[in-house]
Write a structure and sequence with these properties.
The chain is α+β, with helices and mostly antiparallel strands. The protein has 10 helices and 4 strands, in the order H-H-H-H-H-H-H-H-H-E-H-E-E-E. The protein folds into 2 domains: 3-70; 103-212. Strand 3 and strand 4 (210-212) form a beta hairpin.
Length: 215
């Protein structure tokens, strides 16, 4: 079989040759070398024809293919970058979001401050109506002046001033106060009087000095 018959039977075209040599083409270093390799793989006549008529288009396609091969893979985050991001997010969260334990403690102190003021006011009203001060929270509650429980938000009994516990007559000038021992359950009435009793300190209300609280 001569060369022409062989080419006719194989239906050899530049396109089929280009496909058959693609794997070799992609391994070459430059578009020009790739083009020469394609021409080398073809019969002499086809190689001359393609070299003369299609060199520019073949060179351009080789350039595109090599450019695709040389493009670096997508760059991801390094471990150090991820750790830095995690640290920054943690710091921002600690600043923006209060600790649940701190929020719960503040809510208890706020409630205790309100309750002690209510108890003192109602104890004074009780004394004005009856001539003597009530001796306990249960006495105030039984008389219908308040529905307050006997214990503070920490489930510790309220602490009453001596004027209340002794049932002193209201005709005498008395210092009436009620307080909670606070989060530590060990707080005391502040002597000398201070508004801030510190971390886990007592919280209460005085008929003379007003409110004080821990934190």
């Amino acid at each position: 079989m001569n060369w022409r018959a062989d080419q006719a039977s194989r239906r050899l075209t530049p396109g089929t040759l280009q496909k058959s040599t693609r794997s070799e083409f992609e391994r070459l270093d430059t578009p020009e070398l790739a083009w020469h390799e394609i021409c080398r793989c073809m019969p002499t006549r086809w190689g001359r024809i393609m070299s003369r008529t299609s060199r520019s288009s073949g060179y351009r396609e080789g350039e595109i293919q090599l450019e695709r091969l040389r493009q670096p893979a997508g760059r991801g985050f390094t471990l150090v970058e991820l750790l830095v991001v995690i640290v920054i997010v943690g710091l921002l969260a600690s600043i923006a979001i209060p600790s649940p334990a701190n929020a719960h403690r503040k809510a208890r102190y706020s409630r205790a401050a309100s309750d002690t003021k209510t108890l003192v006011m109602q104890a004074i009203l009780y004394g004005n109506d009856r001539g003597t001060y009530p001796t306990s929270v249960a006495t105030i509650r039984a008389a219908g002046y308040t529905g307050m429980a006997d214990a503070d938000p920490w489930s510790t009994p309220w602490q009453l001033s001596p004027a209340l516990t002794s049932g002193a007559p209201t005709a005498q000038a008395a210092h009436v106060y009620v307080f909670s021992k606070g989060g530590s359950a060990a707080g005391v009435y502040p002597v000398p009087f201070v508004v801030d009793t510190g971390e886990d300190g007592s919280v209460g209300y005085s008929s003379i000095y007003g409110s004080w609280s821990g934190r």
